[in-house]
Write a structure and sequence with these properties.
Layout: H1 2-26, E1 50-56, E2 59-61, E3 66-73, E4 77-81, E5 85-87, E6 90-95, E7 101-109, E8 112-123, H2 144-151, E9 155-156, H3 169-181, E10 187-192, H4 199-219, E11 227-233, H5 244-250, E12 252-257
Parallel strand pairs: 2-8, 10-11
Antiparallel strand pairs: 1-3, 3-6, 4-5, 4-7, 7-8, 9-12, 10-12
Length: about 260
C-alpha cells in the first residue's frame, strides 16, 4: 500500500517544479542600467585680436615719405585712419603726410578689438626772418577781424584727408607771417567737412583738419597759446549743392578772431 502513495507524491513534486519553472520563464528581467552621462565639452573663447603699427621713419621733412607697416592677428577686419581705410591683416603702405599726423590701426575679430597708433612728425621749414618789425596792417579802416580774414586765408582739403595740401602751403605761410607780425591776435581754427560720411566721423575729421593747420602754424613760430581749435563737421556748409565744387568748398579750415 505504501508504493502507490510514494509515486503520487513524486508526481506532485514534479508538477510543482514544472510550475515553478513556468513562472520563472514568464518573469521579466530588470531593464539594463542607463549608459553613463557624457560630460559636455567646454566652449573655448575666441582669442582676442592683436595689432602692431609702425612708421619708418617717424620724423620727416615736408615732402618726404613714410612707410607704415602693420600686423594683425585673430582679426576679421583691419582699418587704418586717417586715409587708408580697410586694409589686409598684414601689410605696408607708403604715405606722404603734409603735416604731423597720428595714424591709428584698429583690428576687429570674434574675440573683440585692439588698436595701435603711430605718430609721424613732419618738419616744416621755418619762415625767413621778417624784413620789417612793423605789423603787417595797412593804413585802412579795416578791423582786426577783417584783416585776419584777408591775410590768413581758408585752407582747403582733399576728400577724407586731413593733410595740408601742397597748393595750400603758400597761403598758410603768408598767413603765418602776418600772425607773427601781429602777436596780440588770438584766433580759433574751425574744421569743416562736406556732407558725405556720418556726423560722428565728420566731427573727428574736422578736428584732425583744424589741428593739422594749428601744428603747421606752430611749426612756423606761432604760439599755440594764441590758437583754439573746434570742429563743426558737416554742420556749417558754405553751400549745399551735391557737386564736387561745392564739396571742395566745404572741406576747409577757417580762421575766426577770438572775442
Amino acid at each position: 500500500m505504501t508504493l502507490p502513495l510514494n509515486r503520487s507524491r513524486v508526481g506532485l513534486m514534479i508538477l510543482f517544479v514544472a510550475a515553478l519553472a513556468l513562472v520563472a520563464c514568464h518573469h521579466k528581467s530588470p531593464p539594463p542600467p542607463p549608459p553613463p552621462a557624457v560630460a559636455a565639452t567646454p566652449t573655448t573663447a575666441a582669442p582676442a585680436p592683436t595689432i602692431t603699427l609702425r612708421a619708418n621713419p617717424a620724423t620727416i621733412d615736408r615732402g618726404g615719405s613714410v612707410t607704415l607697416t602693420w600686423d594683425a592677428r585673430n582679426s576679421t577686419s583691419v582699418r587704418i585712419e586717417p586715409g587708408l581705410g580697410d586694409v589686409a591683416a598684414t601689410g605696408s603702405r607708403d604715405v606722404t603726410p603734409g603735416s604731423s599726423v597720428t595714424y591709428q590701426a584698429v583690428a576687429t575679430g570674434p574675440g573683440g578689438s585692439a588698436s595701435d597708433t603711430a605718430r609721424i612728425t613732419v618738419n616744416t621749414p621755418p619762415l625767413p626772418p621778417p624784413t620789417t618789425t612793423e605789423p603787417l596792417r595797412p593804413n585802412t579802416n579795416l578791423t582786426i577781424e577783417e584783416l585776419l580774414q584777408k591775410n590768413v586765408q581758408t585752407v582747403l582739403f582733399d576728400y577724407d584727408k586731413a593733410d595740408i595740401r601742397a597748393d595750400q602751403v603758400s597761403n598758410l605761410t603768408t598767413g603765418a607771417a602776418w600772425l607773427k607780425q601781429n602777436p596780440n591776435v588770438k584766433f580759433t581754427i574751425e574744421g569743416h567737412c562736406d556732407e558725405r560720411g556720418s556726423e560722428e566721423y565728420n566731427l573727428g575729421l574736422g578736428d584732425r583738419r583744424a589741428n593739422a593747420v594749428k601744428q603747421f602754424l606752430v611749426s612756423q613760430g606761432i604760439s599755440d597759446a594764441r590758437i583754439n581749435v573746434i570742429s563743426y563737421g558737416e554742420e556749417r556748409p558754405v553751400c549745399r549743392d551735391e557737386t564736387e565744387d561745392c564739396f571742395q568748398r566745404n572741406r576747409r579750415a577757417e580762421f575766426v578772431l577770438n572775442p
